[in-house]
From TrEMBL:
Phylogenetic classification of the source organism: Bacteria, Pseudomonadati, Pseudomonadota, Betaproteobacteria, Burkholderiales
Identification of the protein by name: GntR family transcriptional regulator
UniProt keyword terms in alphabetical order: DNA-binding, Transcription, Transcription regulation
GO molecular function: DNA binding; DNA-binding transcription factor activity
SUPFAM superfamilies: GntR ligand-binding domain-like, Winged helix' DNA-binding domain
Organism encoding this protein: Verticiella sediminum
Amino acid sequence: MSVATKLRPAARSTPPVSRDDIHERVYRAISEHRLLPGTKLPEEKLAELFDVSRTQVRAALQRLAVEQLVTLVPNRGAFVATPTAEEARDVLAVRRTLEPSVVQRLIAHIRAGRAGDAVDRLRTLVLQERQANVDGDRPRAVRLSGEFHVLLAELTGSSLLARMMRELTPLTCLAILTFDAPVQSACPNDDHMLLVEAIEAGDTARAVALMDEHLHHIETALRLDRNQVREVDLADVLLG
């Protein structure tokens, strides 16, 4: 997919950033639905924006490509990945397999006394997400929504589950950005709090059912017969 991108120089008032910082800026912009599928990421422009060498930019883009967030096209450069309909279905299928087991494991972890603050941490994050929605801060609300799912995995005590969810979250964002209606919210406002309440009650069956329903809602909200073409300003997205 081709996306027209306005590029403009931005004033730098901070020290040069590292390749990890560049990776994090792009990852976060995708997770907040601000950096769109198909957007070109020119090495020279990113080097100018971040006041770093093209070598540092290239290393960050290569890492993002390994994570399937960026596509590297020979003789054309780097682009934010644009998932196909089948790839979008695959991401959601993996999540439907993975996340019910996450809530099962978390409830068992809490019962065993190994995650005493889990419910409080989850509720705090959900309340922050709710406030972001009230404030009309969609990028923050979207990011916090993704962080909720990552936190569920982290609280199980499994570094593998946590890493998988950190990788799946921005891939889901790309699927939503490619196939979702522009104003549609993929996560209903109350879904996360209902999950927290089921986890707090130790109701494994309800928590699993809620997670399955939640992920089903995300998939059915996608319009897999079409995609979105919109314009972004890299300076605003990555430095704003």
